[in-house]
Amino acid sequence: MKKINILVMSALLQSAVCVYGNPKYSDEDVPASSIADVASDEEEIEDDSSEWNEKVQTKLHDFTSEELETSNFYTGICIYDLTADSLFFDYNGNKIMRPASTQKLITAVAALDYLGADCEYVTSAYISGKVENGVLNGDVYVVGGFDPAFNSGDLRRLARAISNEGIKRINGKVYGDVSMKDTLIWGQGWCWDDAPSESEPYLTPLVLNRGCVTVSSGPGNKPMLEPSTSFVELQDRTGNGGRFKATRNWVSNGNIITASGNMKRGNSKTISVYRPELYFLCTLTDFLKTEGITFSADSSSVVYGLKELPSENVKRVYRCSRTVEQILVKMMKESDNLYAESMYYQIAASTGNRPASAKSARSVERQLLRKLGLDASRCRLADGSGLSLYNYLSAEQECQLLRYAYRNENIYPHLRPSLPIAGIDGTLRKRMRGTSASGNVRAKTGTLTGIITLAGYCTAANGHDLCFVILNNGIMHAVNARRFQDRVCALLCQP
Q: Disulfide check for 471: which of 17, 76, 252, 466 has CB 3.0–4.6 Å away?
């Protein structure tokens, strides 16, 4: 067989990175298996790709046949050799299945392709009227741009920016402009009983702390809210025995949080808030008061509400922005549903249709699929996060998307670093440890009741880059599906 010097291979790999335009990798990003492979300058390896391919394909066939014959779940697998530009392995790859959170790959690729990594999420604040002797004879407006990372620190800076205008009193109200998107608070096909969970967010252009509050242990092991806000009522029922719990009266769409059980140092629970846009505005008024700003209205009156920004006679006093690339990392590493939905609506907003809607985002994604030569009618895309039970596609279709991303220098250098690394970080930090896949596989996980999925990239033992999609539906025990997926990945990566 043909002999290739290891130094030559190293040079080729370095040049390949340059072709993809500086993916910003550090030494920590280099798979452990790749580092181990470079043993010495004198070492030579054999180019036995064909032999390796046949061996691994046989192992995959035998393993999947044996495993899936006795299992009671449905599986679709598509593995593509990106280096050789050929299909490597297929098992029910054309079967339509639910992707769960691997749907976020479609959202990410569409956003990078359509918007670009530098597209901004912007939250701005304006004042109307005039400031005379420290009194604002007008209103404050905050225009939401659906920034999912907007936090308490950003809100304090917003309040300080208003104070820096010399305002000590507001003879008006604080308004939120949420006209950027439609009024739907959930995506199509979301489960209603997931409402109190932070993993199923309410969707609004004005987001504070992901639309959530955290109940944590304060002085004397008493519950406290972070951030401190008058929008939420905290009822202390702790000290009555049992494990610490915190619940919200979500069935009645209320914002009363009850803490119970024995609270200890370190106990905490994060809970979504109903009407997060009003939570944003209410907390802003609280922060303005801490800046020494008062309101002319009676103390019992609500001094905030929703209203579009006037087209004239306003002055911008604050601007906060984040890019698609900044949002992408948390969205993929932690599988954050709010981050994914915000990116979905950024795609929608960029079409020029107002208010932005899921329908507009879906049209962009269908255009992308058609550009890849796929039949968009053979799949259904309902949301940006994968929470919806209405999402349907095949492993083959998703694999085609990964192929496109890999060969696009505007997508892959941003997508690759955002994916969880097996055995290292994100949602894969505890998986594939001690195997050849650890530090090698970079993939997006997906988990819903009855659904476990995995899709991403790895480098095979023969040096070839692969992309893969594994969809498992009808799962009774998640551990079985994850074990199956981890074994497939290990087979792809091991010598």
A: 76
